[in-house]
Amino acid sequence: MPQTPHQYTHLREALQNLRLTIGAYLDNKSADVDHKDVIKELYSRTEMTGSYMAALIFANMIALLGLLSNSVAVVIGAMLISPLMGPIFSLGLSFAMGNLILARNAGRLIAISVLVTVAAAAFFTVLSPLKEVTAEILARTRPNIYDLLVAIFAGAIGAIALCTRKNYLFTTTGIAIATAVIPPLSVVGYGIGTLQLGMAMGGFLLFFTNLVAIVISSDIVFMLLRFRSSMVEGSKYPLRFRFKILGVTLAVISIPLIATLVTDLRALKLSKRIEQTLRSNLNVEGHSRLTGFSVNREEAVIRVLASVNTVGGIDAITEKRLNKELSSGSNRPINLELEQIIVKAGTIKPPETSLAKKILTTTPSAPKESLTTLRGRTLPLIKDACQEAGVFLAPWPVRGCAVTFSDGTTPTVLQLTIGRDFPLSDQEQRWLTLAVGKKLGEDVMLKTETSRLLPDLIIGDDGVPDDQGKKALAILKEFTNQKPPLQVTVSYPGGGRKAKAGQLKKAGMLRQYLVKDLGVPSGSIMLRPNGNAYRVTVGNVK
What we know:
Elements (H helix, E strand, L loop, with lengths): L4 H26 L4 H10 L5 H19 L3 H10 L3 H13 L2 H28 L7 H4 L6 H20 L3 H12 L2 H12 L3 H28 L14 H44 L5 E9 L5 E9 L5 H13 L5 E9 L12 H6 L10 H23 L4 E7 L7 E8 L6 H15 L3 E8 L15 H7 L13 E6 L4 H22 L6 E5 L5 E5 L3
Parallel strand pairs: 2-3, 5-6, 7-8
Antiparallel strand pairs: 1-2, 4-5, 7-9
Helix pairs in contact: 3-4, 3-6, 3-10, 5-6, 5-11, 6-10, 8-9, 8-11, 8-12, 10-11, 11-12, 15-16
């Protein structure tokens, strides 16, 4: 129903009164702000001093160490001592007042800080023996629109605290933790130092998102608190030009952030749908129960690995139907892999006698078994357990295997030494424990340790290892079709510039040998100087 002229007039008057009320409130609040003192302080935050650079570099090193060691507390500590928030707020004030000089000073200091931070992080990463991707690093490589909103709210409350001086110390501490401008730059340096440019770009996008959001939100707060162009002496730039810069920048960075959010939401929706489908089909009273599942979306075909406890087993027809149902609601094909664990129906009671007692128990009328007889009865069981572990861990070699049988009060212990350059994941530990326990017929406690997969290599001038090295490297052929592909690192001796260049050349020829003779994908091989010998290590890509 269209509004009458009388109603339209009342609406205009209400809006006008609201605008006047808000304006009067902001005028009252801005009267409490010492504009000159705030401007003076933010001008001082654009000065490049020795203490500023020292705090910046130390905060960067602390953040990088926290990221590499996966320590949340250390990363938070780096956020708190970072001085980079000062020039970012100065840049926001320059947009509010149109102060070209302040904008240049703040922009120059921010640009230099970014370059110094990234370069220092990349240099330290190259020198560090720890280069594995951690959860703290991955958390700063996929920003989305929510990160932008967090930075906008944090920047606004930071500007208010800066102007009013209320709870300023505690507020700035919270802002430093919420926005975190230093750790993303450390991730950029880490990505460059390990030649993972996609990770470096993700870290820089998060930093740039926080930077733009804080500048925009603080700019709005400064303008509402009556920071005006009339307070500026010297060069100014018009309000329309300032809005164009901020608007275009915000629009550009919003595109990848929204795209990332949409991708994450789709992945979450897919995971929820897969979970509901699996539970509705596999949670059958008295027959089967879903115990866990994982989804791998890195390949063209989505792989779903599900573990289920079942009494009678899931037949091929049911598995095929379930696989078809999973794929029907997805725009990509889904391949279901079922890990079936046969269990006893009803309540499973603990065995009255342990496996060790079953082996050692003899009837009263039977003669006492000799040590040779007991050894003959025990060795096949140990062999079976070790073989089961070897099949599960292949192609990683099992270099040591021992079984300590239970006495009835403690579980049987399987001790494994695995030729592997990184430890087993929690999921691998669980599944290996279940597989071996099923083979032995009782609960098993798994203890694993790793040893280097490959020894140090002796490399000739042609970049080819000696016969012993060739024999050791032959195992890499078994990893060529690994899904997902593994990361192969070739470490070569350091030294002076001339010596290092020669060692790098030989490492490059060794890389060609791995590609041509062993079939290792060239994209999965990384060269780095480390130690005083040639060494090839195989790590997982997370």
